[in-house]
Amino acid sequence: MDFEFSNEQKLLGESVRRFVARDYTFEARSRILASPSGMSDAAWQAFADLGLLAIALPEDVDGFGGGAVDLLSTMEAIGEALVLEPFLPTVCLGAQLVVRAGNAAQKREILPAVAAGTRKLAFAFTESGSRYDLAHVELQARREGDHYRLDGAKRVVLGGAVAHTFIVCARTAGEAAGRDGISLFVVDHAQHGMARTDYRTLDGTVACDLRFEAALVPAGALLGAPGAALPAIEACIDFATALVCAEAVGAMKFANETTLEYLKTRKQFGVPIGSFQALQHRMVDMVIAQEQSRSMASLACVRVDSENDPVERARAVSAAKIKIADSCRLISQESVQLHGGMGMTEELKVSHTFRRLTMIAQQFGDADHHLERYASAGHQARGR
Amino acid sequence: MDLNYSPDEITFRDTVRAWLGENLPAELREKIVAYDHFTRDELLAWHHILARKGWIAPAWPREWGGNNWGPVQRYIFEEECGYAGAPPLVPFGLAMCGPVLIRFGTAQQKAHFLPRIYNGDDFWCQGYSEPGSGSDLASLKTRAVRSGDHYVVTGQKTWTTLAHYADWIFCLVRTGEADQKKQDGISFLLIDMKTPGITVRPLVLMDGGHEVNEVFFDEVKVPTANRVHDEGAGWTVAKFLLSHERMNTARIGTSRRELERLKEFAARQRKNGRPLIEDPRFRDKLTRLEVELTALSITNLRFLDQLRGGRVPGAEISMLKIRGTEIQQMLTELMMQAAGPLAQPLAPLGEAVDFDLFTAGLAPRYANFRKTSIYAGSNEIQRNIIAKMSLGL
Known about the structure:
The complex is a heterodimer.
Chain A: H1 7-23, H2 26-34, H3 41-50, H4 68-81, H5 87-101, H6 104-116, E1 121-124, E2 140-144, E3 147-158, E4 165-171, E5 182-188, E6 194-200, E7 206-218, E8 222-223, H7 230-265, E9 267-268, E10 271-272, H8 277-306, H9 310-339, H10 349-362, H11 367-383
Parallel strand pairs in A: 1-4
Antiparallel strand pairs in A: 2-3, 3-7, 4-5, 5-8, 6-7, 9-10
Helix pairs in contact in A: 1-3, 1-4, 4-7, 5-6, 5-7, 7-8, 7-9, 7-10, 8-9, 9-10, 9-11
Chain B: H1 7-23, H2 26-33, H3 40-53, H4 71-84, H5 91-104, H6 107-119, E1 124-127, E2 143-147, E3 150-157, E4 168-174, E5 186-192, E6 198-204, E7 210-223, E8 227-228, H7 234-245, H8 252-268, E9 270-271, E10 274-275, H9 280-308, H10 316-339, H11 357-360, H12 362-368, H13 379-390
Parallel strand pairs in B: 1-4
Antiparallel strand pairs in B: 2-3, 3-7, 4-5, 5-8, 6-7, 9-10
């Protein structure tokens, strides 16, 4: 039993925290948020220079061969600073799919560019009717000679508005919710027959919807074996879920620290409002929720790195997401409430943290989804 | 980062588990399973078994019978005992009076009392709360007046757990003047329960059980040799003791065992022709509880890891108490809910020929466990402690 990070992980965590403290202040973030692209190329290059984009890439493609635990402190720092750049879509989703499903040539083509910061990725998996069900894929991919023809639509592709390359999951066989027949394709952002609608999400990050009409991609764009992509997708989403839990812990840490500071400085009736027991006890419950969330985020990251049984992995990740979703809601709502009207305003960072925590609570499945998944995974585990 | 126990810790756990498998008497375990109350003799029987093994007071210094276990080993031992269904160890001697004597006692007090506590020769209880002094403990009024080589004690203690079994009581009493700061005039006395002038009156709780009592003192003579630490220094002793009282309140092993029972029980109950455990509304409550317990066990291990690194436990203990007791209460509540209408029968009138004692015990147990968020510093007091000690509010 050892809850300490390794020396390498500590050094990495320190360098990320130093970077965001100096170059990703709330003022700097506000400027990035107000810019047309909603992200900073300079910040992205800095992530590349610090090696953050390569942490979880294999060593033979310029990576450090790390896993979720190695990314944990980076994600926490990203959550604390409310980083807007598409780290989660590129590093935790797109690149992980290529690592898990791609052939040697695809890895060589895509991953060193990711590590260098010259290629951003996005994973298009959500559809209008899919909710959080990863097997619900209606977008069709039909083989036509040397090509696949894509028809259908994807929704809320995180980071999609600034991605160079999309990984798109499509159905090459079977019915809409069937576990078999799902395939992955590497699709360029300028793909003919693919229309993109870019937008901002509540937390200030960028995303897009995609519409495919007779979009012809070469057969070589297939990532992994045709029709058999779901296990890799599930593993990848579990990986990203564990890390978005770590990001949430960072955001909770900021929300709690800034709220505590406010309780000590804001005066009413001639005393700091933190002297009121009604507020003290709510603050304590926020801190407990943060500690419990930190425990579960650590558990999820350790399990996605070390657990080979997908059912056990799913249970650990869903357990974590249930706790994190509940805590996101508690801490975001209470941090605004304890700030009073000021907590509602654009000019206070806590309102931005509220927005990110609100989005994280539902990202990759809300508490209800994971309650159901945890229970059904339990059935599978017992049935064997 | 590694959330698993080390090979040494696993060996230790397996040793404890195997020993419990062989040495925990079945009749004691069955009482735990039946949610039954223990007699004085049963509690002491388990104490004697552990004392003979040398595992009764691991945290004590070696010279008094401690065995150098680190915080992780002590935690493993306690969790394994809880999980196996061992009777609770009464903390008043082992975890409270013992550490107080080791820290503040005279050589004579240590030599006399510590071996007797270790061997379970004396049954101890705790005289802290009074009718007018609950959370505000320092406002206590029981008075001890010095008269030569003894004190004369008059007053009343309440919520005195197992006083009806006890040979001795340790008490906080007021020796100072009325105009002193309320924390300053308090002393810590050890009182023989057989001394003339002591009356014990049961306080029956709403589950019908007798665990707590009122203890009345009417001019009870206590030798000054039975005062621990200086006269007026009782509050220092009390604060030291309270930090010990809160050490093992997460009760994760016990809750893990109860969670397994709840799942088994809910799988046997039917709703709409299906096992209750498959009912989404019930199942979601169960899952949230299981997640909360998983999170608490990891949080507990994280704190232990810090302790092992030399950090002193602080307000974290309060966090474990709050969440641990909330989980214990939720377990009893869901168990009662799982029984549905069958949770209503309480006790048979006349001979119990065909009466389900198990389901009849669930509602009283739910009622009884409301105590957990009240005792050992109410959960509101624990939140005050966190707010003050770790948040600086």
